[in-house]
Amino acid sequence: MSNAKKDFRVDSLGVQIYDSETELALSAATIVQEYLQLILKQKQTATVLFATGNSQLKFLDALANLNNIDWSRIICFHLDEYLGISSDRSSSFRYYLKERVEKRIYPSLFHYIEGDTLQPLQECDRYSKLLKAQPIDLCFLGIGENGHLAFNEPTVADFNDPYMVKLVKLDSVNRQQQVRGGHFPNLESVPKYAFTLTIPTICAAKKIICLVPGKHKAKVIEEMLFGKISEGFPASILRKQPQASLLLDIDAASLIEY
Question: Which one from 23, 153, 171, 223 is the annotated catalytic residue?
Answer without folding.
Answer: 153
